[in-house]
Amino acid sequence: MASSATESEFVTLVSGDGFEFVIPRSAACVSGTIRRMLEPSSKFAEALTGRCTLENISGIVLEKVCEYFCYNEKNKNQSNVPDMEIPAELCLELLMAADYLDT
Amino acid sequence: MDNEVPLPPPRRIRHRSPTKTPVASGSSLRKTYQLSRFDDRSSQPSSDPALFSSDDIPASGLENYHAPGPSGSRKRRYRGTWWGEMVKDPKRKRADFKEKRHVDSGVWMGSDESGADSLLPSEDPSMWGEELLNDTSDAATVTMTQGDRSTTHSQPWPQRSGLKKVQEPKEHQAARNIVNECLENGQDSVDLSNCYLKMVPSGLLRPLQHLTKLPAIVEPPVTEDVYSSLQPFLRLFLTGNSLQSVPGELFELGSLKVLSLRYNKLTEIPPAIRKLTLLQEVNLAVNRLECLPWELLWLIKKGDLKHMVVRPNPLMQIHQAEIAQWHSPAGTEPDSPEGTLKLRDYEGPAPEEAWAPIHVATGPVRRFNMEGMPVDAPASASQPAPQESRVPSLREASLLACTRSVFFDQVSDDEMADYPGLILRLLRQAKDVWSGGGRSCSVCHRSFVIARTQWIEWWDCSTYENGLKGPRCPGEKLRPLPFRRFGCSWACVPNAETDQDGQDDMAL
């Protein structure tokens, strides 16, 4: 079980209010915090199960965060990066989340 | 018949109201009343018969169709009534009018007010103002109660609500008066020099973008130089104040042609100066500038900037600065400071490069992390390769969304202090950038808040410093100026810029 989770291509991010987001591992590792959580050598529970619970991030914000992860993954090697739409009411919470996730 | 009319009609009305009544009596009584009432209101003192210039009068036909003039399509003009009567004798006209008064023309000649009257909320015009007053006083009481209620909760609210007007410093009022005067007189040279301004109050410069010149009235003999353009040649002089920063508002004046910030206390010119694409002359002398924004160079190369005064300023000197790469022109020995600091000899007419700015050297690139903190080792092993991508960080993206949102400028510093400390520093930085007019990456032109790379480019612009009076002499010593460039991502570095710039040049 543990070995299969570390090799798994996808990880699950769980928000504080219980929403689950399944995203590619490489995309989630854009965040320094999640990358360290999922480090196989760390033997953290997250690394073993492939499931990160982010207590202080609400579902709405985490959805936008996941959107950013995929946006980052998609445009990583492009020279002309389009802008990502961020609604004004979310930007402060996203800023907090970004600080926490170190992205 | 006449008893529907509340007052005995004036003499002229007499022959009109009976004309109307037969039409109206068929429909309804109410309508009759309205018609006669309109009549009363619209009755004007009798005036001269109107001048008409039309062919399609009701009585026109073959019998009174005059032979057309030489032009053929000329409209007939005559003075008289609309049903085609010519005025021969004022007294005779009166008689004719009385004879014809029973003929129903079928045309309702109600005045313009007839339609508008029914749309107005109040019948009595004297009431209109009062209604408006009531509305505003209602609104005022609402804000008053809001203000009262909030005073119990927090102190700073009443000042922000606008009920209590904060007294403006005298020098700001004086500056506003000068700006208003210029706006009223259509004067496009705005002189705010020596106004003792420590900062430019908000809203002072913004109206200037709508400045229009007034046409000058010149006594007759009219010569050709009387005709001048009404397009304002906007000049703004903020000389001799104590400004410590340039307000972002200044860069909204897209039509600004001449800008003088001489003799202030500026430590930095915001990169937003790039928005002043029509700028022709700029004076930044006697300030505290250590380097210039790279966007100024962009204005020289791609814009209209012809004259730039930047000395004296405590500018960085190339001899003391760290240089990563010397750009020597082809044909000279590479990477030698002496070779590049001298213009190549030329014979005959001055080549283009004797006029154009010359790229002398590039300083080392400083990199910053996502927090905007300097990173010492630029390409150490701890930094993985994906960091080189051009994708903005989530911090950057959300900060940019913050600055673009409407509420951002309404957040006061006091309110900001309540935000969590983690993001406070970033938000403060975003606010500084925003009030300076925003930044855009000098390589990929994306807007950004936190610079990720920064480097100095040394360019010699001596021809532009003396206003393009003459080319450089052969073998002249170059005096390069430091221009600071910002990049929005770690991929935006000098090497990346060369091909981008090349593309830009090709496109232009």
Automatic annotation (TrEMBL), chain A:
- Listed GO biological process terms: ubiquitin-dependent protein catabolic process
Gene Ontology CC: one annotated term: nucleus
Q: Which CDD domains match?
A: BTB_POZ_EloC
Q: Write out the annotated subcellular location.
A: Nucleus
Instruction: List, for all copies, the residue spans of the domain called SKP1 component POZ.
Output: 10-72
Task: Say which domain of life the source belongs to.
Answer: Eukaryota
InterPro entries, A to Z: ELC1, SKP1-like, SKP1/BTB/POZ_sf, Skp1_comp_POZ
Which Gene3D superfamilies does this entry report, sorted A to Z? Answer: Potassium Channel Kv1.1, Chain A (3.30.710.10)
Q: Does the keyword Nucleus apply?
A: yes
Key words of the record:
Nucleus
Pfam families xrefs? Skp1_POZ
Subunit structure, per the record? Answer: Component of the SCF (SKP1-CUL1-F-box protein) E3 ubiquitin ligase complexes.
Purpose of the protein: Essential component of the SCF (SKP1-CUL1-F-box protein) E3 ubiquitin ligase complexes, which mediate the ubiquitination and subsequent proteasomal degradation of target proteins. Controls sulfur metabolite repression, probably by mediating the inactivation or degradation of the metR transcription factor.
Write out the similarity annotation: Belongs to the SKP1 family.
Name of protein: E3 ubiquitin ligase complex SCF subunit sconC
UniProtKB/TrEMBL annotation, chain B:
Keyword list, A-Z:
Leucine-rich repeat, Repeat
Report if keyword Ion transport is assigned.
Answer: no
Q: Which PROSITE patterns match?
A: LRR
InterPro entries under this entry?
A: Leu-rich_rpt (IPR001611), Leu-rich_rpt_typical-subtyp (IPR003591), LRR_dom_sf (IPR032675), LRR_domain-containing (IPR050216)
In what ranges is there compositional bias, type Pro residues?
A: 1-10
Give me the stretches of Polar residues compositional bias: 19-35, 146-158
Signal peptide feature range = none
**Highest taxon of the lineage:** Eukaryota
Q: Which GO terms describe its cellular component?
A: cytoplasm
Q: Which SMART domains match?
A: LRR_TYP
Where is the stretch described as Disordered? 1-77, 146-169
Q: What is this protein called?
A: Leucine rich repeat domain protein
Give the source species: Aspergillus bertholletiae
For this protein's source organism, the top of the classification is: Eukaryota, Fungi, Dikarya, Ascomycota, Pezizomycotina
